[in-house]
Request: fold
Amino acid sequence: MKRFLLAALLTGSALTAQAQQPAATAAPARTEEYCQLNAQQKLNGKITISVDYGQQQKFFSRNLFRDAEGRPVEFNSVIDALNWLNSQGWEFLNAYVQVEDGSSVSHYVMRRRIPS
Reply:
């Protein structure tokens, strides 16, 4: 009898504990998206821009801005790239230089508003 009462009490308290948990709420809609650009100069003097949206990258993979035909977009300078990105709706936020293995890499943080 004591076992039955104990089992009933434990089952009832477990059901009550589950019922008291708050319902999962949906995450608020994003209003902006961010990316980080890495500018690398090619041997021909042009600049290619790889972009990090926070996605998982495969080894030896680079995410480049591409034109309508799928070719990587090349820029004459970083300012040329920033002007092109601004025409695509991106806004410059911050820039910093990071030294990796003795060479410096320029990083640019950009933001674009998501239409509601």
Observations:
- The chain is about 25% helix and 35% strand.
- The CA atoms of residues 2 and 24 lie 37 Å apart.
